[in-house]
What does this fold into?
Amino acid sequence: MNQTLAAGKSFGTATTGKLAMWLFLVMDALTFITILIGGIALRNAAPSWPQADVILNVPLTAFNTFLLICTSFTMVMALNGVQRNDQKSLVKYLGLTILGGVVFLGIQVYEYYHFIAGNESLGAALSASGFSGDKFLPSTGMYGAVFYTTTSFHGLHVLSGVIYLFVIFLQAKNGIYGSDNFDRVEIAGLFWHFVDLIWILVFTIIYLL
Amino acid sequence: MSTDHHKESFWTKYIFSTDHKIIGIQYGITSLVWLLFGFTLMMIMRYQLAYPESPVPFIGSLLGDGGILPSEMYNSLGAMHGTIMIFLGVVPLAFGAFGNYFVPLQIGAIDMAFPKLNAASYWMYFMGSVVMAIGFFVPGGAANSGWTSYPPLADVATMGQTVWLWGMVLLITSSLLGSVNILVTVIQLRTEGMTWMKLPIFVWTQFITAFLLLLAFPPLEAAGVLQLMDRLAGTSFFMPSGLVVSGEVLTNAGGGSPLLWQHLFWFLAHPEVYVLILPAFGIITEIIANNTRKPIWGYKALVYAMIFLGFMSFIVWAHHMYITGMGTTIGAFFQTTTMIISIPSVVILTALLLSLWGGSIRFNTPMLFALGFIPMFGIGGLTGLPLGLAASDIHLHDTYYVIGHFHYVVAPGTIFALFAGIYYWFPKMTGKKTNETLGKLHFFFSFIFMNGVFMPMFVQGLAGVSRRLWDGGEIYAHAADVLYLNEVMSVSAWLLGLAQIFFIVNMIVSLRGKKTAEVNPWDATTIEWTDTTSPPLGHGNFETVPSVYRGPYEYSVPGADKDFTPQSEKG
Ligand code: HEM
Ligand SMILES: [Cu+2]
It folds into this structure.
């Protein structure tokens, strides 16, 4: 028996799988929005809030943001490749997307490590913002709480995205996708673009405002 | 195509199946066991309430010194009763079991849209329930801050609270996967001719329920993550500054907002009450139409009322928070929305009542439970109105009146509807008939004792007795006059427990019995009765997937040769 009777059916222009992904993204977006709005509410209620660029390394993260935007571009290229039945370009661009995601995570881990290990200049930045000690931790005021919760929750999404794309990548290397069968590549792409989009919100709210 | 002939092992057929019917039954059995367990916790607590500080018989030695239920454990059992009844019992039974089994059958689909995802959501639910059970064995016992888990208490509570949060994360994820699956199934897999306005009301209720779950759970999931961070990573999202616990000033950073949790929690938990009641409406509607032998009164009104109910349920949540010191403007807003949301409920109840009018009613077991549901839900709903108005809620908040109110909705309300559904669809699921005598005894005794448990709660609550009291109010002068009711309620609860033996015996005897059911024993019109292979159903559900030509409740159509005209009959 056919697993999904619905394989051929579509809702408007969306296939069954895509519809499910859209619904999933609605709920995931609501989760993020709750965390972001909660953070903003707590920030407005706080007596003081540090200037964004005192503790955080804004240029490094700006680079990370740029990197993630590039991976959205490579994801589009991968889809474009498979739609033209160009297997090589599909595999290449999927690979590049995954690589970008891994580097993004690496930079985030480096950033966390730097904060948690602590050092003198960080200590100076912290005391300029009214915190004690030379480590920046989740328990460093509401500021640390909001920073770590928001960025790590997003980081988990990047990690899931990388794993998800890796599965698609392996399947693509086996040549199961082609110009008549690329729905799943497109669906994975939706998730990836969503994670990028959310990052732009996170970056703006946490690092710029 | 409908019958696979290759041999399947026990494990692939019954345990790791992806067939929506098997998954529905897995949900059903697991949730019934949890319902019984959650009820047992309450029967233990009711002993302490009726006879404070005397040793509990039979199981006392498991509880504490001298067999007396300790107050900390009372808190644990209470919190777990609420959590288990809602998240491990009623929702998985109403949405997981009934939704899985009957939505595909009623819309003419051979399975859910994503069978593997479906199995994954069951197993996620199963793991969540195991995690909840583990809570009882960690130091300090299971979660003890109420099912609402209000911080700052929950933030500083014993380890059980962390286990509770992990359990909730699994249960929420399971519900979300399940709701995506139901939504896509209903949108994409309806058979030819099954237009939206020909859907059985049951399918509508499951569809709206899935939307509520999808939109309401994310904020709670986020809130759960924040509370986990507070407990594990040292953040203070919900911890105000300068908190003193047991005489010690806490050293956490502070600056957090306990009220933020309440907002996020009730943003989920109000829609959640409609998750508890909508599937019940669906089941009741099917059974009433079938047993009055006439079309349901106001099909369209029902559908629109339910959709409206779904929308409104997202903007009433702060009626649970009138005493948190919100301003009068916000208070006025939530009082208004709360009064407005009672209108669709009244429309639904009215439509059901009018459907009875002039019908030639068959009083079988499912119908008795359905008829019991209507006044019980009515009492639950009407007693909610004073809670929706700030002036009266200030007196009633956190008293036994509230406990009485929502139990009328969920216990003699939803639980009766779920029993009705089990009796109604049992022949379809098993191919066997249930015993009517046992079923009627089950109904009458349950009906009496349900009221025996919950009616006195209104009296106690109006007298000002608080909920969540270990001694049942013994030390309060204002409770003295109504204290005798504690024994009435407890005895009723234990007898209610005994009455469930009729149900359990009925299930076992009927399953083992020889009385096989016909394909369509109730002479029903919807396609799960008229077009499926003979029960118990195999893979694929239908000999040939039927097309649909008419609405779901064409009973006693003038000029027809029988008093029901199936949806799949041309004409
Ligand atoms: C039919 C048997 C039931 C009985 C005898 C019963 C009894 C009670 C009692 C006496 C309380 C108050 C405990 C206290 O305040 O100390 C309570 C609380 C509660 N019950 Fe039930 N109940 C039953 C079924 C249900 C069902 C079916 C649900 C939900 C679907 C439910 C959900 C709750 C919740 C959420 C609470 C509040 C727990 C808390 O304070 O955190 N109960 N129950
Ligand atoms: Cu509410």
Residues B 270, 273, 316, 319-320 surround copper (II) ion (ligand 2) (CB under 6 Å). Residues 83 and 181 of chain A are 8 Å apart (CA to CA).
